[in-house]
Amino acid sequence: MIVGVPKEIKADEGRVAAIPAGVEMLSNEGHEVLIQRDAGFFSGFTNQDYENAGARLVESAKEVYSNADLILKVKEPLAAEFELLQEGQMLFTYLHLAAVPEVAKVLREKKITAIGYETVESNGYLPLLTPMSEIAGRMAIQAGSRLLEKIHGGRGILIGGVPGVPAADIVILGSGIVGRNAARIAIGMGAQVTVVGRDPQRLRELSELFGERIITFVSNNYNLAKVVKYADLLISAVLVPGAKAPKLVSEEMVKSMKSGAAILDVAVDQGGSIDTIERETTHSEPTYFKHGVIHYAVPNMPGAVPRTATVSLTNATLPYCQMLAEKGAEAFKEDPILSRGVNTFKGEITNEAVAEGLSMPYVPLEELL
After folding, report:
1. Of the listed 96, 169, 232, 335, which one is catalytic?
2. Which site in 34, 47, 144, 307 is 20 to 30 Å from 63, CA atoms measured?
3. 0.70 exceeded by the pTM?
4. Is 96 annotated in the active site?
5. Residues 99-135: pLDDT tens digits?
6. What's the DSSP call for residue 265?
7. pLDDT tens by residue, 250-290
8. Catalytic status, residue 269
9. Structural domain that includes position 25
């Protein structure tokens, strides 16, 4: 099979979908790998690195899409890439289709076999989303600490405080991978940390892990209104696999926050869970103010640390890339974990949560294979 890796074009996105080690493995298995020139530049991989690993370098994204059977990406196709997609092609990337119906429309029209990293699932575990969730959770505190500095419009608070001066109040919505990693870093920096989650068992596990250094609440409107009000930094880490993120924090709650407080929504690539998150932002221009509160809504946070993120991501995706390159759609019959990641196939939406989020018909993948 011919495997193609184009350069990512989303604003401030530095990741790449394959590293030289992965290219070498695919090449040794008899597949041809096309890499767009400079695709790995921001992740620290040179064109020579890819050539040495057995890749064939091409100049343009058009050459990649025109020749490859399987396209490997990091982020969903943007409008400039729609016309490049070839009918019947296979696409393996982060999709988050419930938040981008225009992408879903193109994938259906072109009968793309689209597998979303974020919906590959094994007993509730998301093996291809977890690496980026770990990074995003840790980055959320790193970014949040800057937002609270006065120079960025924040309250002028040091996250860990100093003797005689209280630490910042950090409130984390969500007790999954993002929330856990955010809590770990926030506690390590000395913040006062509150985690709000739906699953009492996960909250119990966090309490056992962090002890008295963390406060936990079960998620409901009453508790949310209370904790949002006292937050210096509010981090939303809410995920429903394949579906749009639920709106949890109302505009009235945001209005109750302190002037100069900050909101960071890690779930913005799935629509966000804060009512006042009105648009995505970029690493170059990451924030805007509303009701005196800083809003940070960057959808590709790990793209700012592309070396770490690329290696972590491709460590997880490579076995599935090998399977797809070797077996194509037949891999879905053999691997139920991978098959759950299929979002579109033969012009239909084949993931139930995605279909529900898009208000489109759902057709089980098994009926189409």
Report:
1. 96
2. 307
3. yes
4. yes
5. 899 999 999 999 999 999 999 999 889 999 999 999 9
6. E
7. 999 999 999 999 999 998 988 889 999 989 999 999 999 99
8. yes
9. 2-126+306-367
